Amino acid sequence: MQGFPVARPGQVIGLLGGSFDPAHPGHAHITREALKRFGLDRVWWLVSPGNPLKSRGPAPLATRMAAARKIMDHPRVTVTDIEARIGTRYTAETLARLQAIYPGVRFVWLMGADNLAQFHRWQDWEEIMHRVPVGVLARPGDRIAARMSKAARIYRDARLHGQAAAQLGRAEAPAWTFLNMPMTPESSTAIRDRGDWG
Question: Cys-Cys crosslink for 90: which of 123, 124, 152, 174, Cβ 3.0 to 4.6 Å?
């Protein structure tokens, strides 16, 4: 479909969703690490129309897309507004639609450890766990809360440890891994609070 990212059956595509309000080097860092560590062919940044868990609306989508493309310039990464194009609002429905649009493509959901800590608040979060493998990337200050989270406890037997993380893209859901890595302390909230955005 015109304007949609290209993917072939058998490829493993990591999906990093968010408002990217704004995108920053930390997003680019975890994306490069995910490509190296999880056996991914490509990563798509899903720049969302808005985050249902946030009361304040983000900057205009076109502005966020342009800024994200400046930050993430990599031949195996695509910045896309596919959620706005297909009209989905929640991650579970986005994944269902992508699996229907791209039969045979293997998707992996990527998120920071801060999101795992409150993952059980997401709409249909258990459906997400059963649809696709999940790669969790540690962020400063979020590691303990993430490891003790409801999702981590319920799905502890589905966790891939150590070298097995490299097989995440080929694992059958539910499967997830937690990647400890050096992180930049930058965050979208801090950038907005400094007045450096919008």
Answer: 123
